[in-house]
Amino acid sequence: MPFNSIIFLVFAALFFALWPLAKRTDNGRWVTITAASLVFYGWWDWRFIFLLLGAGLNDYATARAMAAWPSWKRWFLVASLAGNLGALSVFKYAGFIAESVGLLAAAAGHSIDLMSRLPSFTLILPIGISFFTFQSMSYTIDVYRGHMKPVTNLFHFFAFLSMFPQLVAGPIVRARVLIPQLAVRRDTTEESRWEGMKLVAGGYFKKVVIADNLAPFVNTAFAAVPAPESSLYWWLAVGAFAFQILFDFGGYSDIARGLAKWMGFDFLVNFNHPYTSTSLREFWSRWHISLSTWFRDYVYIPLGGSKKGEARGHVNMWLTMIVSGLWHGAAFHFLAWGAVHALFLSAERITGWPEKLKKLPGGSVLALVTVLFQVLIAWVFFRAQDMAQAFAIIGTMLEFNSRTGFPTTEAFKVGVLYLSLGLAMELFHFSKLDARKWFSPTVYRSVEVATVAVLITLSVFLRGAGMQFIYFQF
Asked: 269 is in which domain, residue-wise?
C-alpha cells in the first residue's frame, strides 16, 4: 500500500479516526497498530504476511529464551540471526548466488545452471524485507548485549516490528528507542501535530513533485542503447538520479516521521541534507542515517572498528561498505558501489584532504564540490543496469567532452528543471540562511501555514507519473 496512492489515504483516514480511542490502553495500542500494519503490508501480497510473522515470532521467542536461559543466550542469538539472514538469503540473494556459481563454473570450463532449479517463490522479493529484518535483528542483538530487556507481550513486540509508517522503507527504528515509546500512552500536542503536518506535506512534495518528475529523465537515460556520448548529458542524468533518490527516499522518511508524530511517536531524522557535506565521512553521517548507524553499531564496531590499528580499521570499513552494497541489492554493481565509497573513504582517512582543503580561501565550497563529484561517480554503479554500463557512463563523464548532440526531450527539460530546484534547496541549506530570523514568531507561523498549503497544492497539480518508491526494491 504505497503512501502515494488513494487507497493509503483512505487507510490512513480510517486509522487516525480510530486511533484516539484505540491508544487509551496498552493492548488497544498494540493490537490496533499490529492489525493495521498487517493490512498495510498484506495489501501488496497477503502471503508475505507470514514471512513478517515468522521473523517476528522467531525473534520474540529467542529474546525471551535469552532471559530464561542466559547461559545459552549465544546460541539463541545464533538462532535469531540464522532465521533472519536465512530468509534474506533465500528471497534476496538466492538468484545472485546461483548466477555467481554459474559464472565461476563457466570460467572453469563447466556448465552449471542453478537458476532454473530455484523454486519460483525465491525469485520474488518481499517488499521491505531488508528493513524489517534489520529492525528485528537490532532487537535480539540489543537483548543479547544487555542493552534492553525482552518484551513479554507479543502484541507489544509486533507493534514495534510492524509499525506501518516505517515498515517497508524505514527509517530503521531501534527497539530500545521505539519499544519504550509504545509502552505508554503518548498524547499529541498542537505543536507535534503541526510538525507532523509539515513533515507529511514536505515529504509528499519531495516524492511526487521532485522525485517523480526527475524519474522519466533518469529512466530514459539509463535505458538508452546506445548511450549518448556527451559528458554534460551524463553529468546531468546522474545528478538527476542523485536528487531523485534523495527526494524519493527522503520524502518517504519524512512522511513516515510525520505519521508517527500524529500517532505520538518520534522517529529520528533519516536524511540531513547529505549533499551539503564537505567530507565523505560527513556525507555518511547525513545519508540514510538509520542504516549507516546500524552498520556502524552492528557490523563495523563488532569487527573492531579502528581500535586495532589503522590498517585493520580500513579493512573493517571496506567490509562494512561492501556489506552495505550487498544489502542494497544482489548484483555486482551494488558491491562496486560499496567498494567505490570504501576507496574514497580510505583516501580521505589517509590524506585528510577535507580539513586541508577547507583551510584555503573558498575551501569549503571546493570540498563540497569534491564530495559531490565522488558521490555522483559512485551513484553510477548504484543506478546502472550492470557493470559494463556503469564503466561506459563513467568513461563518458570523465572525458569532459564538448559534445552536445544529446536528446533534448520533454523528459530531459523537465528533469533539468527539477534538478535545478533540488540543487537550489540543498544550496539554501548550505548557505546557513535561517528564515526564522526574517520574521517575528507570529508572522513566521503564518509563513509556515502558507508554505504547507502551497506544498499540498503543488503535490496535487504538479505531481509526476505515480512511481513506486525506489527503496521498495531493497
From this structure: 191-287+294-473
